[in-house]
Design a protein that fits this description.
By secondary structure, the chain is α/β, with parallel strands linked by helices. The chain contains nine helices and 13 strands. α3 packs antiparallel against α8 and α6 packs across α8. The radius of gyration is 21 Å and the shape is globular.
Amino acid sequence: MGQIRHQAMIKHGGFEVVAACDTHTDPNAEIPVVTDPMRVYDYDPDVIFCCVPNNMIPDVVCEALDRGKHVFSEKPPGRNSDDVRKMQAAEARNPALVLKFGFNHRFHDAIEDAKRLIDAGTMGDLYFMRGVYGKAGGANYAQNWRNDPAKSGGGILIDQGIHMLDLFLMFASDFPNVQSVVQRKFWTDVPVEDNAFALMRNDNGVVASLHSSATQWQHKFTLELYARGGFISVNGILSASGTYGTEVLNVALNRLDKDGNPIPNPESQEIRYTVDRSWDKEITEFYEAVVNGAPVKCGTSQQALDVMLLVERIYAADPAWSEQRTAAIAGRW
């Protein structure tokens, strides 16, 4: 992720990277690379980009804010809601500084176009959403730090599914009512979930269903929004891996028969997107917030807390999994 952010900064042109921190140094690197995070401050940066494992995020973010640095941090925002609240406290201590989290899916062109249609009232009242986001766990699944609950806080739900949950919240606000099934089916020797199924309802009656999977052997991203006046679907999403297919937006408005009933299978319009501009737009929003004082609209600490609380509700709604997760985090699984 650090490389992706670096390339976005270069493309933007408004950033000068003065130093990087990594576990290994490269004598041929174009910029100074240190292995001790504190050494980064020797170069007096204005901003810190935090691209580290989840368990390290709160300390890195809080240290940077308390040293007077603006911060852009990767998602997920730590391992749990307590981690987010810790960062919010540091943010409150430093109100002149910008803190932004990298929920880049909000910036995808198809998602932004869908949001404009919903906000404009074109589709009428939103009824329900369905989201599927899945990938194959991969050859090094068991060794990946993302699947060490002490470091990550959970499995595929907190790693990838959190993006879909963030989109649900963007379209329909919070979901206090949650039912879930969380399970580990394929990687039974790994102490995190490889599938999470959730059915949620908000106080306005909007229902959302999620399937987040690490056993989706054919990678898949699908978001469907059904409203009184029609439907919107996003199939595929442009990604750094390039494995989720073309990003396609379909929009259909209902046609009514003579009695005012919707006619099945309305004709839809399709838009295909070929360039992923989400990283660039996300960096631009951060730059404008730091340099020009523009508000952060996507990736605020409150949005980070909201989505982390929803993740926790999904884990907790399956009692059997909640017990296993607590034991796994404590190293007793």
